[in-house]
Amino acid sequence: MAGIRVGIIGGAGLVEALVGPSKADPHLIETPFGPPAGPLLTLERDGMSLVLLARHGSGHQLSPTRVPYRANLFALKVLGVTHVLACGTAGSLREHIQPRHLVIPDQVIDRTYRRPCTFYDDLAVHVEMASPFCETLRQVLIRASEGNNTQVHTQGTYVCMEGPALSTRAESLMYRSWGGDLVGMTAMPEAKLAREAELHYALVVLPTDYDGWQPQGDAEPEALGAALRETRLATSADGLALIRRALSRIATVPQACRCDSALAAGIWSDRGRIPNEVRTRLRPLLGKYLPPEVV
Questions:
Q1: Is 185 labeled as ligand-binding?
Q2: Nucleoside phosphorylase domain: from which residue to which, for each copy (predicted)?
Q3: Is 121 a catalytic residue?
């Protein structure tokens, strides 16, 4: 597994469960985009080098809009991460995708509008996003799901909304009419930034409810909240189990993948006119193509 390091992005509970009794080393990484959501934890598990990050910070303090996505992905790159397995909850837009199921989505509709969505503010970079998730890493998750007692859907379109309020019924019905299967708040710009950083990135989605398109009946808010928390905990445990099974299979990812060279045709700026300061500041991302010039 030389050269492979897996980053895992999820909730604080997922990170704590993955660490368990193991010894994890915390890292405070400074990035050009500010600090990440919290310390990055490194550890060895079953011969695999892992870097764990709680997306919303300690105690889930950061709303989806305020998550420092750029700093999070940049810090993972600095620590040598090559593959990212992300996990997050969402609402289901389809009857057959039931709460307590798992989904490995293959498409995204981006409805966010308040989040910085690129590392490259000082040059023109256009990465290919027709397949927003790494297909080779998705196949690892799919193979790891075989024989699982939990229903795992191996395709799905994730609608990423801004939030933090949940969908109106009209919005939820609109997402269904677009072909959306799930609605959540964190897949973007996370997947875009992973592609810009030439990271293999795949997502495990944990459906917890049917969003706003399906009436919830006359249940009291307290009862609905309790049921949602129970579903979230159970689904998170199933998602954790899938990620653990997938870890031992990461070494089977083919050596050649388009994610590894996403920037090869993506840098449109005249390379001779990109300032040395930009090359140096973004060296973990651009160094392979634009090494800093010796002055």
A1: yes
A2: 6-217
A3: no
